[in-house]
Design brief:
Number of helices of chain A: 11
Largest sheet of chain A: 6 strands, mixed
CATH superfamily of the largest domain in chain A: P-loop containing nucleotide triphosphate hydrolases
Strand content of chain B: under 5%
Number of strands of chain B: 0
Order of helices and strands of chain A: EEEHEHEHHHEHEHEEHEHEEHEH
Number of strands of chain A: 13
Largest sheet of chain B: none
Strand order of the largest sheet of chain A: 5-6-7-3-8-9
Helix content of chain B: 55-70%
CATH class of the largest domain in chain A: Alpha Beta
Number of domains of chain A: 3
Structural class of chain B: mainly alpha
Distance between the termini of chain A: 30 Å
Helix content of chain A: 25-40%
Order of helices and strands of chain B: HHHHHHHHHH
Oligomer: heterodimer
Shape of chain A: globular
Structural class of chain A: alpha/beta
Strand content of chain A: 25-35%
Chain lengths: 317, 271
């Protein structure tokens, strides 16, 4: 959680257009020191574009943006000197060794060779890659490469670490290893800004987040606040054999009253309720018997669904 | 907030020179992985050319037709500049194209740091235009000396001619490789630029032997201007134009290319 109220990033009515297409349509947010802040949204929601503006590699078209109290339009290089960036594609140099990747990158920040080597060794230890220091990056697995990219982003002791989709494309085990390292960073008080379209990632890592959709912020708050504000405590998922979109929409009409809200999806029906047992009893009373029933706590996925009418990740692994 | 001990980090925007130097260091780190191979090639290539073409083909050529120069002495300066052009084919095409790509992205990685697009351009050009000719072309010059092809005490100045040739061509290759989106088009630069330049620049025969309608190709080729200067250095023969005219053309081409390359890298790295 934030140590104090020092503001690292402040955006007001921030906009970015590419020709006729407006990718970011007037967003407002503030990021405080020590905080883990997230942008949650589907692909194309405008979160990566917003991150690029904060990372000072993309100029805002309109609005105000301050990073460390400075203007990215005129002081981009000085701001970037205080940022750590983990891009979605890692952008590691496959021709260099793991260790060289860190030392060369340190040079971009004016860190002297001897210090860079010491720092690189410490960071490799932090991301548990010391044993691979002399290997070429191309020989590492995807998860290891991501951990190396995280180590690289810390080489300059950044005031804010930016992670763009930190676990996209990783297998579950590698995701958990990355999360574990990010938890460690949080624990040490490093300020983190991340984008993700995984609601479990946002829920676990973010103190506060904004939900973005079509270039706009549609909700903001802590994961718990967002869930409490926008959805009920529990959700009951009902499946009816092979019934699909149209049939489920028709079935949903018969469920009126068994919960606070009924949401038919292509493969199942969601019933938002404050008490799953009451909902189960109501279904039984109406003699509605789904082929499978799953009661669970409401999540950010449900928040997104309620706010946009769409699932956040259609092909969640 | 630090993860470990505090590091001395420059929190200010680097000057243009410092920025370029920092970007240059990536190329240097990459070079450390391949220097044995390139140094070996730089030694072997002039030996092969000298034995096969210089001495072999040269035995059929009357020095009188070359203004009294032995054929090996005639091709040696062009060879030095040709090596510079060949190295550009390696350094300024695929690495530049890959610099912007998700799968490599050296430029993208550098862009997330205090380095600006101009630093990234200047750092890469410094490597291709200065470092590579000053190391590898020097090896070529030394190896050629063993074949007794120099008749001037100023032969080492051929390295400067190689640097100027590189400077004139490198930013244009950078501009090209930065402009294309499809890697299938990368080989066009070898077919339509590097190869014709190597063949039609008076390296292996006097350029005035070319048909008249091809002469303009010779005049615009930076390798021809570089070879004329290098030949003046190694064989003490008067170049086709006053030396300053050759130098002015190469510098003009270099400056124009640098502006073109700057324009495209700034566009590509500002999202």
């Amino acid at each position: 959680m934030p140590h104090d109220n020092e503001m690292l990033v402040r955006a007001s009515d921030l906009r970015k257009s590419y020709g006729e297409h407006e990718a970011v349509r007037g967003v407002d947010f503030e990021i405080l020191r020590g905080e883990a802040f997230g942008f949650l949204g589907a692909n194309g929601a405008g979160k990566s574009t917003t991150m690029r503006m904060i990372g000072c590699v993309s100029q805002p078209t309109e609005g105000t943006l301050e990073v460390f109290g400075r203007d990215p339009r005129t002081e981009g290089a000085a701001i970037r000197a205080r940022l750590g960036v983990v891009p979605q594609d890692n952008t590691l140099d496959g021709m260099l060794t793991v260790f060289e990747n860190l030392v060369v990158y340190a040079g971009y920040f004016g860190i002297r060779k001897r210090e860079a080597r010491a720092k690189a060794a410490e960071l490799l230890d932090f991301v548990q890659l010391t044993a691979r220091a002399k290997d070429q990056v191309n020989e590492l697995s995807g998860g290891m490469q991501r951990r190396l990219a995280i180590a690289r982003s810390l080489i300059n002791d950044p005031d804010l670490v930016i992670l763009d989709e930190p676990t996209t494309g990783l297998d579950p085990q590698a995701r958990h290893l990355v999360w574990e390292r990010l938890f460690q960073l949080k624990h040490r008080g490093v300020s983190i800004l991340l984008t993700t379209h995984y609601m479990d990632e946002a829920e676990q890592l973010c103190d506060r987040l904004v939900v973005m959709d079509e270039g706009r912020v549609i909700a903001a708050g802590s994961p718990r606040e967002l869930i409490d504000t926008h959805v009920t405590k529990e959700v009951v998922e009902l499946r009816f054999g092979t019934a699909h979109t149209a049939e489920l929409a028709e079935l949903a009409l018969t469920l009126k009253g068994v919960g606070a809200q009924i949401e038919p999806l292509p493969d199942k029906i969601l019933v938002y309720t404050d008490d799953a047992d009451d909902t189960a009893a109501a279904l039984e009373a109406r003699e509605i018997r789904p082929t499978s029933t799953l009661a669970r706590r409401a999540s950010l996925e449900d928040v997104f669904l309620r706010l946009t009418g769409r699932a956040l990740v259609e092909d969640e692994a | 907030m630090t993860v470990t001990a505090t590091t001395t980090v420059d929190r200010t925007a680097p000057s243009a020179t410092v920025g370029a130097w920092r970007a240059f260091n990536l190329q240097l780190a990459l070079y450390r992985h391949v220097w044995h191979g390139t140094a070996f090639t730089s030694m072997l290539l002039p030996i092969l050319y000298m034995v096969s073409v210089g001495i072999g083909v040269g035995s059929y050529i009357d020095p009188a037709s070359l203004g009294g120069l032995e054929y090996a002495a005639f091709i040696a300066p062009g060879l030095i500049c040709s090596v510079a052009v060949m190295m550009l084919g390696n350094d300024m095409v695929f690495p530049v194209f890959g610099g912007y790509q998700d799968w490599g992205g050296a430029y993208l990685a550098q862009r997330a740091t205090p380095l600006r697009p101009l630093d990234i351009l200047n750092g890469h050009l410094a490597y291709a235009v200065l470092f590579r000719p000053l190391t590898n072309c020097t090896i070529v010059v030394i190896v050629l000396a063993f074949f007794g092809v120099y008749s001037s005490a100023w032969a080492a100045l051929a390295i400067v001619a190689a640097v100027l040739t590189s400077a004139a061509l490198a930013p244009w290759l950078h501009f090209w490789a930065s402009s294309i989106k499809n890697d299938a088009n990368l080989n066009m630069i070898f077919r339509f630029a590097v190869m014709p330049i190597s063949l039609f620049s008076g390296v292996f025969f006097p350029a005035d032997q070319m048909p008249g309608f091809l002469q303009p190709l010779v005049w615009i080729s930076p390798l021809w201007h570089g070879t004329e200067l290098a030949r003046a250095a190694t064989a003490d023969v008067a170049p086709a134009l006053p030396p300053l005219a050759h130098i002015a053309y190469l510098v003009l081409l270099a400056v124009a290319g640098w502006f073109a390359a700057r324009r495209v890298i700034q566009r590509r790295l500002n999202f």
